[in-house]
User: What shape does this take?
Amino acid sequence: MGPRDEWLAMVRRTEGLGYSSYLALDHLVRGLDPVASLTAAAMATTTLRVGGFVFDNDFRHPAFLAKAAATIDVLSGGRFELGIGAGWLREEYDQSGIPFDPAGVRIDRMTEAVHLLKRIFREEHPVSFAGEHYAVTNLVCPPRPVQRPYPPFLIGGGGPRVLSVAGREGDIVGITTRARRDGTKETSDLTAAATDQKIAWVREAAGERFDQIELNVVVGDVVSTADGRVEAERLAARYGVTAAEILESPQVLIGSVDEMVERLLERRERFGFSYVVVTEPNLEALAPVVARLAGA
Assistant: This one.
């Protein structure tokens, strides 16, 4: 990440290119602090939505996350999205001394945090709550968020347990690769078939509210090229899948601008993805596609 002026220019460039949101990672070992950077991004722009992608629940007590989230929502004029996750990168847990509990414990704790956050946002204060992992007594926690009853919750993952929670609790559900027990990512499950299974878990948990959920996907590789097969073979070797699976994966985008536009529209039709996320290095590469799809 560059100096202040370069970072602000990047955020404003993101808005100028027609992107709808700026999302900040929450990792101790990389990047800027998300609370501070999202506040700065909101103040430096006028239409860009901002959000955590995602806040690691283990790094902040829900009461303090609620205060930070509502503050950003107020200062942005209601442009905030609250992404929250159970944490997965073991490296930062080990470095900071935060216990890296089994995935089930982390997911249960995050689920309880979501319940508490929603109560803090929507109920009259003081708020009291007693759960297995968190308890607050006569909590008074201003400000109120602008978006009512609360900013949209973005919850995602790659396994059945966390995606079931996302289906029940999320307004936006992110479909991503599965986290392994050792705190690394299983990159080979980026295939279309794996994606179908993940969406099925969300659908089953969401029930009748599934149609109200916005589906989100991270496109980690954007390659503008006239020879997509060569790039597909290269990425297939990296991820341990076939070139055909790479070309069909909703987490990879290869081809000309026309081909990328067509593939994104096909994936929206097949999977339901209307919220596509790219990383900063791919900002300019996807810009012509964003321009073509604006309002589509």
Observations:
- The first helix runs from residue 4 to 16.
